[in-house]
Amino acid sequence: MELQAMRRSYARWAPIYDRTFGAVTNVGRRKAVTLLNELGGRVLEVGVGTGMALPNYRVGMQVTGIDASAEMLAKARDKVARLGLVQVEDLKLMDARALEYGDASFDHVVAMHVISVVPEPEKVLAEMARVCKPGGTVLIVNHFARKTGVLSVLEKLTAPLANLLGWHSDFELSRVLGVAGMHLAAQKTLPPFGMMTLLRLVRE
Length: 204
Fold this sequence. Notes:
This protein is 35% helix and 26% strand. It has 204 residues and is α/β, with parallel strands linked by helices.
């Protein structure tokens, strides 16, 4: 998906995102943030969107969020101000393919329901690995294509609608696991219906 197409898609989604797709994907967000809260430290959330996960970070965390959608970020900034989320250090408009941070800037990096949306996901993952400290955790929550079954057929049928839907239904897991500099430490299937997966990668 091209960046401008993604921005147009999420400009359309921003007003209703929390009540629609965001509500369906809340389980993955909660699981990922619970783990990050246990680990502690400075976190970069790539594709922070409307900031749905931000209230779940405990006080004492240091969270920076970036997103390519100005409309989504406006919702996130409003949430931070309205809820007094002191754990959120910064929210920035940024292309995840070229993160404006130095090497090893964060203890942990997370991308929730983002990797199948962004253009050049391998480049985004490489950037996530670059800004994560060695030994730090890179968390990915996402839907990945199924090999068999009814859902696999549906994924293939909806794949051409990626620019309209705002995500790739046929995104392959191998594209995440093949990125240099990270190894898979854990993989867990999540609701609803096992459609989502939580990957814990460790920066080498």
